[in-house]
Amino acid sequence: MMQRAAWAEVNTKGIAYNLGVIRSQLKDNVKVCAVVKADAYGHGLVGFVRELARQGFADMAAVGKFREMMQLSTECGVDKLEILLLGVATPEEIAMAVDCGRIIPRRSIFSIYNIAMLRALDKVAETAKVTLRVHIRIDGWNSGMGLSMEEFKEHEEEIFNMKHLEVCGLYSHLYTAYSDDREEVEGELKRFDSFVNSIPQGYRRRLTVHILNSALIFHFPEYSYDMVRAGTSMYGLPCGDNGRLVPIMRICAQIFDVRDVPDSVPLSYLQTGEATDGGKRRIARIMLGYWDSPLLLTQENIRISIRGKLYAPADEVCMDNLCVDITGADDIEVGDIAYLMGENGVTINEILERNRIDYVHSEWMCLTAGRLEKVYL
After folding, report:
1. DSSP-assigned letters across all residues of 179-217
2. Residue 270 above 80 pLDDT?
3. What are the tens digits of pLDDT across the range 304-314?
4. Residues 62, 34: contact at Cβ < 8 Å?
5. Span 294-303, mean pLDDT?
6. pLDDT over 70 for what percent of the chain?
7. d(Cα 106, Cα 282) in Å, to the nearest integer?
8. Intra-chain end-to-end CA distance of the chain, in Å
9. Cα 165 from Cα 133, distance rounded (Å)
10. Where along the chain do the CATH 2.40.37.10 domains lie?
11. Which of 41, 203, 248, 291 is 20 to 30 Å apart from 274, CA to CA?
12. Residue 61 to residue 327: CA distance in whole angstroms
């Protein structure tokens, strides 16, 4: 650990704890789909999913991009999990990936957004001589983000009788999930429930139905159906859980230099520091740059926790260097660990409050670059 300049620690016990809290809200035998889009919300896609698979934390993983599905499909150690693509892949992309062995059909599940996509994928499967698995996305607003309920009923027989596709799931996403109007949300859930109940039982038994995301799990667990999708909740980010979840990531960097620097000496491209008594500042340097944690390092009120106290940057981040103004702190030395996120004073909630960011966007704070090493503890 001491050889690392900067890294993100992911607490796997925290993952287990959060998923335990989530499961405690649900009906018996309800599956949990771990949403790992956007590099597992900055926690590291492959490493994070390996932990999910190795410890049996989740029943399925959901990605947002086709390249994420291909990346996981060919990674050793994640073969215990089915992978659901929430986004869109073209028939040509899927055909090429199947032909090259970049996806494993029995573990890969594709989202269907319209009837044309369903028919095109059936032709891909016929040509490749495989059976492809799909979940049908339902759009309660008929906005083009899935089949409308009416369109699904119109094509119901065709959907469930495709020759080369296994229609094994059905889901929706409520854009009112973060609304304070619980009556409106429940009204949409009731409408979806009526729709699900209208599906003939012979077809319904084939389906894994899911509509609850993190924002809904703690408010409407009665609509958990066969599976829920846990994204922000799994990572311990705010989602209406009333403080029951725990954050699972710390962003850390080792101090590699401490010295008193004359105020006239620039520390970055644009000198912003102000003179102090004696014209010097005590500066601690860490090897952490914009591209390691871009959104955290572009906020107005950045704070860094060192030895339990909070410090501000001395100047703008420059390249892969962050200078911390520790003037007046004589106990900080080379080798100490600085925390950008995950300690008292720099928790997600405190960062959101300092920067007046709505908790709906809390996952932004976790976004990290692949170059920031992930350590799974």
Report:
1. -S-HHHHHHHHHHHHHHHHTS-HHHHTT-EEE---HHHH
2. no
3. 999 999 999 99
4. yes
5. 86
6. 97
7. 59
8. 12
9. 6
10. 249-376
11. 291
12. 47
Q: Which CATH superfamily is 249-376 part of? A: Lyase, Ornithine Decarboxylase; Chain A, domain 1 (2.40.37.10)
What pairs with residue 147 in β-bridges? 138
Please, where in the chain does CATH 3.20.20.10 lie?
12-230
> How many other CB atoms are there within 10 angstroms of residue 93's CB atom?
16
Cα–Cα distance between 32 and 226 in angstroms, integer? 9
State the architecture of 12-230 in CATH terms. Alpha-Beta Barrel (3.20)
As given in the structure block, the two tokens for residue 325 are: 């103004």
- Percentages helix, strand, coil for the chain (3-state, rounded to 5) are 30, 25, 45
Digit-coded pLDDT (tens) for 52-66: 999 999 999 999 999
What is the per-residue DSSP string for 286-346? Answer: E---TTTSTTGGGSSS--EEETTEEE-BSS--BTTBEEEE-TT--S--TTPEEEEESSTTS
Quick check: 148 pLDDT over 90?
yes
pLDDT at residue 2 in the model: 46
Q: Decide: 133 and 105 in contact? Cβ < 8 Å.
A: yes
> In angstroms, rounded to a whole number, what is the distance separating the alpha carbons of residues 351 and 348?
5
Of 160-174, 251-265, 275-289, the least confident: 275-289
Q: Are 51 and 374 in contact (CB under 8 A)?
A: no
Cα separation, 361 vs 363, in Å, equals 6
| DSSP assignments along 248-279, one per residue | -EEEEEEEEEEEEEETTS--SSS------GGG
Given a cut of 90, whether residue 142 has pLDDT beyond it is no
Tokens coding 351 = 């960062």
pLDDT above 60: residue 18: yes
Q: What is the pLDDT of residues 247-258, one digit of tens each?
A: 999 999 999 999
| Tokens describing residue 338 | 């600085």
